[in-house]
Fold:
Amino acid sequence: MNVNFTAKPINFKLGEYLSKAFELLKKDFGNIFVAFLCCLVMGIIPFCGLLGAGNFYQYLRKINKGQQASPGEIFNFDKFMPYFILQLILIGGILVLYIPFMIMAIAQGSGGEPSTIMSVIMIPYMLIMYAAILYFVLKGFYIPALITFKDVTDIKTAWNASKIMTKDNLLSIFLFSLVVGVLSQVGVIACGIGVLVTLPFMYAANYFAYEDAMNQIERDEISEIGIQEKY
Structure:
């Protein structure tokens, strides 16, 4: 597979992504909301949740650029395989991490009485496990963008590129994910149906983070081409 980009650490602009997401929702909330409902439907279909999100990002890109876009585009299955493989990897990785936990839980349960030693072992293991999951999620932050916007179908290639792109940005990405996650849940806390408003905001904020990263890479590509032609 030919990769038409060179990965580089991204200048992450947390505040800009949040403000642009808010402006985009104000601009065309009705159509975005309908597309988001289609995304929810895709999430119900087995192994299509990430694909639906990727298609939703593509839809938001068209809306942001003033192009014609239909909510029905969310049901596009052209990129099913890379997202399917990604979900299999995620499920397999989580199962591998949980195997020692399940073994310890079974061993503790079969003993009849709770074991202090098992409890001492399980607590740090769970902390390490969640830290590992968080690390891989943050390092793989740009994988959906690479699949959706750069047509990267090889997950290893996307993972290696995302590792470079997130270099020195893990804290910013973590804070961004935390803020967006909290804001997306405000609808649940204030009013259950309000989540239908706040969740699209989460997707829109992620879209602008992805779009900015792709633009930074594309600017470098154009600059390199110009330099080569000049000399």
Notes: The helical segments are 14-44, 49-64, 80-110, 116-139, 143-150, 155-165, 170-190, 195-230. Confidence is low (pLDDT under 50) at residues 220-231.
